[in-house]
Amino acid sequence: MSEMTAPAAATAPWWRRLVFNSLTWGFVLLLAATALTLGAGDLDIVQLVLMLVAGWCFGFAFVNATDRMPRNGAVLHIAVAVILGALMIFVTEYGGRLIEPLPDPVRGVFVVLWMATIPATGWIWLGLLGRITDAFTRRQRKNAPVRVTPEWERDERGDGSFVTFPAIQMRLRQLTVAIVAIVVVVGALAVVLLIALGDVVLNFGPRMLIVFLGLVLGLPSYLILTAVLRRGTEQCTVAFGNDEVRIDVGATASVIRHSDLEYLRWRGRSDYARVEIRGAGVDLSLLTGIAKAPAGRTAELPPLPRRVFRRLELAGFIMEKSRRGEVITFRRAVGTPADEKYPGRRPLRQETP
């Protein structure tokens, strides 16, 4: 009888990390907006949307990067937020006079960068507001009952174990599109209001611009989006048996044998905690990070049991692990069913006594 070695982690290809990096899309959209603005010699709605989304991409990437920093992440977040706030105040006061003698192409590039800076600054300040709120409520959370993460339990219906958790049946790209749509709509609304109420904004002073974007438009939009999504929360169960995966989403039950399983992704923490599973006609994406958790529970998933790694390795899967080990992905290796969908991959190591 063969024994499996410890799971071997495989890093996602560089091109995949590049494609799914928000910084990459920020630079691409910013370059596209610059090229269209300089080519047309005018500012149109297409360029405006590209600038707003590009700015959000940069702000989103920065906030996530500071959240992942084990040290000094909060200090860097505060410093950049203050610098961008001061920059916006300075440009609002003196930017027009400074760029007036410059050539038209230089002024066009300046406008693109400035319009992209507005949503980036708004998102960074919104993230900083979240940090401040978290700091004020930390003492209250310490005194409150400790919330527990869902745990694996022995499955009485058959072999293996199961975990029950609240989740929203939604793909990550759908969530991203929803966030981008909110950013574009709110950003466009902010630009329209600032243009229409230019005199009022000047009377209140440029400092109110950041407060206006973050508190009056950004925060309510985020809260509304979260509330709408959480209405779709369902009770879900995922069970790993010796030869199959059993999934219950509300009243719907599905069973995927390991021989029919094509893809499995497991992320336990963060707002993007989720389970993605595909095979045997089943294609599910269960987001738990943004779902409404029951009292005393966290919106997280427990780590996968060791036996799941061994069973999936035995079934011919390879494992990919993110840099920090938060995201675990299983794909079929060469020589197993459906291997034509994932060419160029090698099976995990096996040892035979």
Task: Please give a structural write-up.
The chain is elongated. The strands form 2 sheets. Strands 2, 3, 4, 5, 6, 7, 8, 9, 10, 11 and 12 form an 11-stranded mixed sheet that branches. It has a two-stranded antiparallel sheet with strand order 1-13. The model is unreliable at 1-10 and 338-353 (pLDDT under 50). The protein starts with a strand and ends with a strand. The protein contains 10 helices and 13 strands. It is an alpha+beta fold and 353 residues long. A hairpin with a 2-residue loop joins β9 and β10 (282-287).
* Low-confidence regions: 1-10, 338-353
Structural class: alpha+beta
Number of helices in the DSSP assignment? 10
Distance between the termini: 8 Å
Rg calculated over all Cα atoms: 24 Å
Strand-residue fraction?
15-25%
Total number of strands: 13
Largest sheet: 11 strands, mixed
Element pattern in H and E: EEHHHHHHEEHHHEEEEEEHEEE
User: What characteristic shape results from the CA principal axes?
Assistant: elongated
Q: In percent, how helical is the residue content?
A: 40-55%
Mean pLDDT: 75
